[in-house]
Amino acid sequence: MADRKIWFITRPERDPKFHRDALLALAEATDGFQVKWSGNRAVHQKYEEALNARGIKREHISNDGSGGRTWAAMLKTFAYVYTDDDGYLRLTKVGQKVLDKEKVHDNVTKQILTLQIPNAYFLESGFRPPFESGFRIRPARFLIKLTNQACLDYFVTKEEITFFALTAKTDNELSVVTDKIRAFRNASPAERELMKQSIAEEYDHRERSDRAARDYEVAHGDVAHTFMLICEYTGLVEYIRGEALRINPSDSKQVSDLMEVFDQRYPFNTRYLISLQRMAENNGLDVDSYKASAYGNVKPATNRGKTENKVRAMLAEYPDIGALTRDEIKAILLNELPEKDAEKYTNEVTQDVSHALNQDFVETYLHEPDNRAFEDKTGEIFKAIGFDVEMRPKPNADVETEIEILLKYGDRECGIIDAKNYKNKFALSASLASHMASEYIPNYDGYDGRKVMFFGYVTAADWSGERNLTKISQLAARTIRGREIKGIMLSARVLLGFLDYCMDNNLSREQRISKFLRAVRNEAYSTLGEFLRN
């Protein structure tokens, strides 16, 4: 089956007024989320029964629990819950707040306006067919902004949404879609049919025929209807049932101002590149968990000019801009900007800035082609976690062997990290294990008066050879007696996810380092969930 080219939303219930009822029924069916969900058809059917009892689902229980899974998928879509590594459904902060009846309308509205493609649920292996690559859009925000334009007379019809808005892949296509709708309105009836037929053939893989446009509209009209309903729930647009979205021109500025606030507070979330759990947890923050932008008052992507783009690109090398001092930020900007511009943008960046994961860093780090830059960015993550980081330190002995990253902590302790930017798989072979045990560890033991207490590998992609971590410890014990030096291997995504987790949960520097060190037990971690269980 071909990948999706058109917006989609799971819609067993189209009206967001009933999201809380669906959550209450799910809590009941899973005994307060204590019963395993994945593969448990009995609890899926029990969820259907709980929905029926609340009167929000038609009285039919599927034989395999598929109805329950569809309703759970809707709740995952809006990040009220997510599935953890063990197959249990976990409430996000916003899910808990809605369940507890706290600011329900505000929280549901926030979830609607931060809904994006892709999100954690749309990237689950069970979601089929997947969306095409290249999607980067917030559908509800897109529709509200589309409607809120004088050139469209502050309305968009269901037909126009179905054929033009649903095909947009990015937020930046607003003007393109607007132009298409204006051309459609000015076209003759025959020209309109040809335009619709062309869209059906291009986006829905339909054969050229007189029925193509009609079949496309039947297939996707209900998706348009659902998005129109959820937009109306926000109170920012009016939905004339089955016809159109509209905004009173007198409300236009208020709507624009609120959209700008949301664009500033909630930029496009790239945490799906780290892990689906972190994506769901962060998308699932409630309205009171808002943190200021990592970029302070620098405008978001859709509103910024060329210089602001350059500022963001220069700061994309740092995972936690809030951890940088004013002087450090200015020094970074002075590398490419004149004094006056550097001063101006330093002021903007440092105003209302918070400790929040830099979304631009996520993309540049996880797609970094240059090995040395990958090492440097890995070092920046460890620095943001709380370690005192030294890059490529010269070992005590007069040897050529040089580790990429040395982490200082405590009074006299340190760890050494080898960053591996292998795009397919890093294999920790016996020879590499021997090199770590016989070269790196003894050569850096005593560096700056510190004892090497652990070693580690950070990999850009997958890894193998976990068992050699224990062999390194055993070999190192022959040289350094009386001290057990353990290792860790983790992917760049897990390391980045751990930093993000620390930021979201306001962990102190000491708590972050302690939690990381607890995971150093000659184990390798491919998911954040595995790492956090320590």
Automatic annotation (TrEMBL):
Stored InterPro entries: Restrct_endonuc_II_AlwI
Pfam families: RE_AlwI
Keywords: Endonuclease, Hydrolase, Nuclease
GO function term, MF aspect, one: endonuclease activity
UniProt entry tagged with the keyword Hydrolase: yes
Record protein name field: AlwI restriction endonuclease
Organism this protein belongs to: Alicyclobacillus hesperidum
